[in-house]
C-alpha cells in the first residue's frame, strides 16, 4: 500500500472512531457538546495519526518474523503507544476543559484508566487491520516473485530446448561437410558453409521471442532445406500449404524443423527423393493446427533410430509454452506418416510491426 492511501486510511479510522465517540457524547449531554469538546476531539487525531503510523511501520518491519515472534516485539510498543496517547488525551481534555471555565474533570488516574481501555481497543483494531494489509502485501509479493521465478524457469527451459535443436541438425551437417572436404568436393563444401551460415543466422536472430510469425518459421525451414539440398545433391520435395491469413500466426521458433528433418531422414532420403513432405497450416476455431506429413511408407521409424529425441523436444516445448492447450499427435496417415501440432491461435502482426528496424 502506498503512503498516501495508508495516511488516508488511518485518518479515516480516527475520524470514524471520534465521530462515533462524539455522537455518544451528544446523547450523553442531551444535545451538542460545547466548543471545547469538539476542539478536543479534533486535536486527538494529530498525535493518534503519528502513533498509528509508527504502529504500522512496526508491523511491516517485523513482518518476516512469525506471528508470535513479531508480537513479542510489537506488544511492548503497542502498550507504550496506548499509554502515551492516553496521557495526551487526558492532558488535552483537562487543558481545554479548564480553559472553557468548566468544573474540574476526572483525576489523572481515572482519566488514564478510562483512556487506556479505549485506546487498547482502538489501536488493537488498527494493529489487526495493519496485519491484514501486511499479509496481503506479502501474499502479493510472493505471487509476483513466484510469477517471476516461474517465468524465468520457463524461459530457461524453452531456451535449453531451443538450443538443443541446432546440435540435433548440425551434427549430421558437419559430418557431411567433412565428407565433402575429404572427397575434394570443395565447391559443394563452400556452398554448404554458405547455406549453413544463412540458416544459423536465421536461427539466432530474434531468439528471445517466444513466438514468431508462421511465415518466418517457413523461411527457417527453407534455409534448412537449402543446406539439405547441398548435402544430398538434390532439392528435397517439400511443399507448403498455408492460407494467407495464417502467415502472421504465432508459432514457437524452430517448432517444425525437427519434424521436417525426421520426414526427410526416414521418408524422403531412403526413397531417393520419391517421397514428398507436406507442411500444412489450418485454422480450427481459436486454435492453429500444423501438420508435417510425408508420402513414405507410413511406418514409424524403427526403435533407436533417433527421432524420439526430436519429437519429445517438440512435445516438451508445446507443453512448456501452452500447457494442456499445446498438443502433438504422431502416427500413420493415408499418405504416409503425419505429425500434427495443435496450439492456440495468436496473431503476431502487431508485435512484428513494433520491432525496431
List keywords for this structure.
single chain, 357 residues, alpha+beta, Heat Shock Protein 90, five-stranded mixed beta sheet, two-stranded antiparallel sheet, 7 strands
Describe the 3D structure:
By secondary structure, the protein is α+β, with helices and mostly antiparallel strands. It folds into 2 domains: 3-145, no CATH class; 185-353, 2-Layer Sandwich (Heat Shock Protein 90). 65% of the residues lie in helices and 11% in strands. It contains 9 helices and 7 strands. The protein has helices spanning 3-28, 35-61, 67-99, 108-182, 186-204, 214-232, 257-268, 307-322, 349-353, and strands spanning 212-213, 238-241, 250-251, 277-284, 287-294, 327-332, 337-344. It has a 5-stranded mixed β-sheet with strand order 2-4-5-7-6, covered by helices on one side. Strands 1-3 form a two-stranded antiparallel ribbon. A hairpin with a 4-residue loop joins β6 and β7 (337-344). α4 runs antiparallel to α5 (186-204). The longest helix is centred in the middle third of the chain and has 75 residues, at 108-182. The chain is rod-shaped. The two termini are 41 Å apart.
Amino acid at each position: 500500500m502506498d503512503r498516501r492511501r495508508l495516511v488516508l486510511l488511518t485518518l479515516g479510522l480516527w475520524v470514524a472512531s471520534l465521530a462515533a465517540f462524539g455522537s455518544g457524547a451528544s446523547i450523553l449531554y442531551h444535545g451538542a457538546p460545547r466548543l471545547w469538546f469538539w476542539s478536543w476531539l479534533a486535536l486527538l487525531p494529530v498525535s493518534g495519526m503519528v502513533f498509528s503510523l509508527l504502529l504500522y511501520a512496526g508491523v511491516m518491519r517485523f513482518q518476516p518474523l512469525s506471528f508470535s515472534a513479531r508480537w513479542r516485539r510489537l506488544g511492548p510498543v503497542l502498550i507504550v503507544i496506548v499509554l502515551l496517547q492516553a496521557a495526551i488525551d487526558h492532558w488535552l481534555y483537562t487543558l481545554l476543559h479548564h480553559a472553557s471555565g468548566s468544573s474540574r474533570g476526572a483525576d489523572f488516574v481515572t482519566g488514564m484508566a478510562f483512556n487506556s481501555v479505549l485506546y487498547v481497543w482502538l489501536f488493537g483494531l488498527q494493529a489487526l487491520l495493519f496485519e491484514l494489509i501486511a499479509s496481503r502485501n506479502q501474499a502479493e509479493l510472493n505471487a509476483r516473485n513466484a510469477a517471476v521465478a516461474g517465468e524465468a524457469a520457463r524461459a530457461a527451459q524453452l531456451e535449453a530446448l531451443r538450443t538443443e535443436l541446432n546440435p540435433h541438425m548440425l551434427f549430421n551437417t558437419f559430418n557431411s561437410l567433412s565428407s565433402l572436404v575429404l572427397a575434394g568436393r570443395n565447391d559443394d563444401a563452400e556452398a554448404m558453409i554458405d547455406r549453413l551460415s544463412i540458416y544459423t543466422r536465421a536461427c539466432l536472430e530474434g531468439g528471445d521471442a517466444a513466438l514468431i510469425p508462421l511465415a518466418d518459421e517457413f523461411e527457417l525451414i527453407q534455409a534448412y532445406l537449402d543446406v539439405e539440398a547441398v548435402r544430398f545433391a538434390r532439392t528435397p520435395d517439400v511443399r507448403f500449404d498455408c492460407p494467407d491469413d495464417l502467415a502472421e500466426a504465432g508459432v514457437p521458433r524452430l517448432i517444425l524443423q525437427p519434424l521436417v528433418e525426421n520426414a526427410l531422414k526416414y521418408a524422403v532420403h531412403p526413397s531417393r527423393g520419391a517421397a514428398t513432405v507436406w507442411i500444412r497450416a489450418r485454422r480450427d476455431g481459436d486454435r492453429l493446427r500444423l501438420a508435417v506429413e510425408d508420402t513414405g511408407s507410413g511406418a514409424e521409424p524403427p526403435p533407436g533410430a533417433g527421432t524420439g529425441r526430436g519429437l519429445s523436444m517438440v512435445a516438451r516445448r508445446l507443453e512448456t509454452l501452452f500447457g494442456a492447450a499445446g498438443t502433438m499427435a504422431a502416427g500413420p496417415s493415408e499418405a504416409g506418416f503425419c505429425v500434427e501440432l495443435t496450439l492456440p491461435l495468436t496473431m503476431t502482426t502487431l508485435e512484428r510491426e513494433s520491432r525496431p528496424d
